[in-house]
Amino acid sequence: MIHFELVTLTGVKLRDDVFEVKLPTPQGLIAVYENHAPLVSTAVTGIITVRKKDNTPDDLQDNYAIDSGVIEIADNTVRVLVDEADKDTEVSAKEAEDALKRAKQLRADAKDQVSLDKAQAIVDRQATRLKIAELKRRNRR
User: Fold this and answer.
1) Which ranges of 56-112 would DSSP assign to H, the alpha helix?
2) Residue 14 lies in domain
3) Tens digit of pLDDT for each residue in 60-96?
4) pTM for the complete prediction?
5) Torsion angles phi and psi, residue 37, rounded to 5
């Protein structure tokens, strides 16, 4: 088992001993198991997937939509520090879809590169939230 901590600006989102954590990094998705080599990396906007026990089926894993942040792995402990993280059960597909539409409109209306970059970050965040909501809905079937 590894000790996993997901920490946001508002506090600890998850602190638990888990079997596996999948993390989005600039180089791609990495899976972390017990005795993983030490690592410090950035996290990119994407989905963290947590398998609590080795026999947890894929459709019962927990998914978190995150913003970019920092990952630290050392001594069977994984710490992820991000601005925001939403668990799949906290996200409404309809709300995420509406927010994604608004974000795409912001991007279309952007007048300069800074506004475009900010709008694109919002689009990426809302697309990730919509994805975890759809994953949860699909897994409930």
Assistant:
1) 93-109
2) 2-87
3) 899 999 988 999 999 999 999 999 999 998 888 888 8
4) 0.88
5) -65, 145
